[in-house]
Amino acid sequence: MSNKIALVTGGSRGLGKNAALSLAKKGIDVILTYNSRKEDALAVVAEIEKLGAKAAALQLNAGDIKSFDAFFNTLTAVLKNTFATNRFDFLINNAGIGIMAPFAQTTEEQFDELMNIHFKGVYFLTQKALNFINDGGRIINISSGLARFSVAGASAYASMKGAIEVLSRYMAKELGTRGIAVNVVAPGAIETDFGGGRTRDNEQAKAFVTSVTALGRPGLPDDIGGIISFMCTEEARWINAQRIEASGGMNI
């Protein structure tokens, strides 16, 4: 019996990489996308293959909606040639960027870039993926603790994540007839290079996160990847339309 297949956007580093490796450890094959870091993506593919799963890496600018048709044409060929199928099972909408700016100074260009990657791109990439996702599959959208609590400078980014949480419930409502469950994983502050590595490299930011987190430290990629992969398991089949925050108890 062939393995299930997950498509992880933004899988070359950070949380996406951690999720891809965690999925592979569960025996799930992985197609990951990268925007510019091809070498990083191929290194993740090699790691996944060492774990005994199949893998492939495809280029995708998650905010360039006009490129999606070409992406799915490439995906069709990769599914056929590498995985001997024409469908996959799990879509993890993880690709993202961090732009922090005060509300009063956020530019339209910053707003549009965040909107295209974090909301419009997710909306239409998922819409186009529906013809490829098996009935009974899963969609996991990545949000943020910032959709629940507010930190100055994140007004645009957090608003897009709030929109993703509402969209996820609508997806769950409308895709339920196909047995597709849709959920949100909302990380708190995690030590990655996201947003310029703010949580990882800035001691002041790290101290602040530690002070407002019940478990007393910032999160690590290893705290998140396993949750995303769990949401693709049979054990998680009855979880649907839920927001699962993994923040160690930030601002509770």
What gap, in angstroms, lies between the N and C termini?
45 Å
Q: Determine the structural class based on helices, strands and strand pairing.
A: alpha/beta
Averaged pLDDT = 96
The quaternary organization reads as single chain
Shape: globular
Largest beta-sheet details = 7 strands, parallel
H/E topology pattern: EHEHEHEHEHEHHHE
Question: Helix share of residues?
Answer: 40-55%
Do you know the CATH architecture? 3-Layer(aba) Sandwich
Number of H- or I-type helical stretches: 8
Beta-strand fraction estimate: 15-25%
Number of domains: 1
Global Rg: 17 Å
- Largest beta sheet: strand ordering: 3-2-1-4-5-6-7
Plain-language structure description:
The chain is of the alpha/beta class and about 250 residues long. It has one domain (about 5-185, about 225-245): NAD(P)-binding Rossmann-like Domain (Rossmann fold, 3-Layer(aba) Sandwich), CATH 3.40.50. The protein contains eight helices and seven strands. Helix 1 packs parallel to helix 2 (about 40-50) and helix 4 packs parallel to helix 5 (about 155-175). The protein starts with a strand and ends in a 6-residue tail after the last strand. The model has no long low-confidence stretch (mean pLDDT about 95).
